[in-house]
Amino acid sequence: MGKFKPEDRAAIDQRWLKSPVKECHYCGVLLSKSTATKEHVIPKSSGGKNTPSNIVFSCRACNGERGSGDYAAFKASKLEEKQARRRAYASVTATQRICYGHIPVPRGINPADGL
Fold this sequence. Notes:
By secondary structure, the chain is mainly alpha-helical. The chain has a single domain, classed as DNA Binding (I), subunit A (Orthogonal Bundle). Helices cover 41% and strands 9% of the residues. The chain has four helices and two strands. Strands 1-2 form a two-stranded antiparallel ribbon.
């Protein structure tokens, strides 16, 4: 991937630390520091730079799937996939989710504390 200038690396690390929700820029899967990859919006092969404004965090699967392909087209396709998953989930009734153990838990609620 090449080397980042120390000040750019620090800015990227700060953006990661300050991000309230750490998820893949494309598919929305939750990321940890060990599962996140730094993805170039404009690939280095197309003249992109190692600067904070050209970096987003993505999962390994999306980073590999996109490769050096078009950013906007890939982002749009992943957004459509995410919306399709949400529509499919919304079409399942609450009773079905409970029967199959798929109970959505709001952010900030720990099921171990009891509901």
